[in-house]
Amino acid sequence: MDFTTFLLEYTPFIASGLLTTLEISLLSFSIGLVLGAFMLSLSLSPLRPVARAYVEPIRGTPLLVQLFVLYFGLPSIGVKLDAFTASVLALGLNSGAYQAEIFRSAVKGIPDSQILAAESLGFSGSQVFRYVILPQALRISIPSLVNEFVTVVKESSLAAVIGIVELTRRGQYVAAYTYRAFEAYIIVAVLYFAVCYAFSHASRILEKKLRIPGYT
Ligand code: ARG
Q1: Ligand 1: does its nearest atom lie under 6 Å from the Cβ of 191?
Q2: What predicted TM-score, i.e. pTM, was given to this entire model?
Q3: ipTM score here?
């Protein structure tokens, strides 16, 4: 079978894995968004050590190991998660730590002078946060959040390791069935690239559009 015939024959089967890939990615990213925002609020409060205790271990250990802890480790202490839940949770918890850092550095990037100015106009602490810090921090975070989503899409391929039939796993099936691993994984790679490139490109455009004058 030549490459074109192979493409026509197997691309639809592999490509339908994109649905599962995107489903896992969207769910995990959303969990990460909520966690990240929550960790930001902790890290701006006296409970900051709690936020650090979450963010540092997550960022300092491989995602694959975190996935194994949830999927293979938890059952031995009586918590059994199915593969899909374990994947979404592992990715979501992981992304939450990175998103917390995205938000934290966005908030840190707002100059003190603005906060002082707002306070001198009589804004209370929570008003400063709501009207001065938050709107700008969100805007600064958006391109990094899009990049984080791209990372989550790529990292979701780890779910294949515990048997989730997403894009990568479908590639594995085709490779095993046809013995044409090169072609199969090239198709998988091209599909990831198409999605990730589209998002990275959008993120670059957003970055230009959302740039706040006077910030780096
Ligand atoms: N490959 C990295 C690891 O094994 C995962 C990084 C996840 N990064 C992220 N921005 N969510 O630790």
Answers
A1: no
A2: 0.92
A3: 0.93
